[in-house]
């Protein structure tokens, strides 16, 4: 049985192995430039567990979309054998519900519009925004959790989240 849970520090290795299997190209994406060295937004890093195994993952990150506070969603990853079974949709619904309940106004992402439209993502609110690298415009999407929160927003998307805490960087 699959259940959605908060990502725990102990999940880091399993999450990275999942991402390496299902999204090996992720480190070359402009979205990754915004995530590097940052921690995900508090309460917005989720995993789907299949028993004790990590079967899916999604994280949201603090960014500035021009002059507007927003969240960047991604990556959303699900084990290949579970795709089409609602795991990704479940992760998306929980993540977006939590973001809205926490008072966030907008979520942006780069992804397939055919998949993300059902969660309220469309291209128009992101039309004046630019990622820190080339992205296919039709794939640059936004969900205004607060209607009009990205209206007339023009400029670059920049990372604003807290620096990532990594124990391997500690010096004794």
Structure overview:
This protein is an alpha+beta fold and 172 residues long. The protein has one domain: Gcn5-related N-acetyltransferase (GNAT) (Aminopeptidase). The protein has 4 helices and 9 strands, in the order E-H-H-E-E-E-E-H-E-H-E-E-E. It has helices spanning 12-22, 30-35, 87-101, 113-116; strands at 2-6, 45-50, 53-65, 68-73, 77-78, 106-110, 129-130, 140-144, 155-159. A hairpin with a 2-residue loop joins strand 3 (53-65) and strand 4 (68-73). It starts with a strand and ends in a 13-residue tail after the last strand. The mean pLDDT is 94.
List the helices and strands and how they pair.
Blueprint: E1 2-6, H1 12-22, H2 30-35, E2 45-50, E3 53-65, E4 68-73, E5 77-78, H3 87-101, E6 106-110, H4 113-116, E7 129-130, E8 140-144, E9 155-159
Parallel strand pairs: 4-6, 7-9
Antiparallel strand pairs: 1-2, 2-3, 3-4, 3-5, 3-9, 6-8
Descriptive terms for the model:
single chain; 172 residues; alpha+beta; Aminopeptidase; nine-stranded mixed sheet; 9 strands; 21% helix; 28% strand
């Amino acid at each position: 049985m699959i259940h959605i849970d908060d990502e725990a520090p102990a999940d880091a290795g399993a999450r990275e192995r999942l991402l390496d299997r299902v999204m090996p190209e992720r480190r070359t994406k402009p979205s990754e430039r915004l995530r590097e060295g940052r921690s995900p937004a508090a309460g917005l890093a989720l995993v789907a567990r299949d028993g004790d195994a990590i079967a899916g993952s999604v994280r949201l990150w603090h960014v500035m979309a021009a002059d507007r506070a927003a969240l960047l969603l991604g990556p959303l990853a699900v084990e290949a054998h579970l795709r089409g079974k609602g795991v990704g949709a479940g992760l998306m619904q929980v993540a977006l519900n939590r973001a809205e309940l926490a008072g966030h106004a907008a979520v942006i992402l780069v992804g397939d519009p055919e998949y993300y439209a059902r969660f309220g993502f469309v291209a128009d609110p992101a039309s004046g925004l630019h990622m820190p690298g080339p992205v296919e415009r039709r794939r640059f999407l936004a969900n205004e959790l607060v209607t009009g929160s990205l209206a007339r927003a023009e400029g670059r998307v920049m990372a604003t989240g807290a620096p990532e805490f990594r124990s391997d960087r500690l010096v004794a």
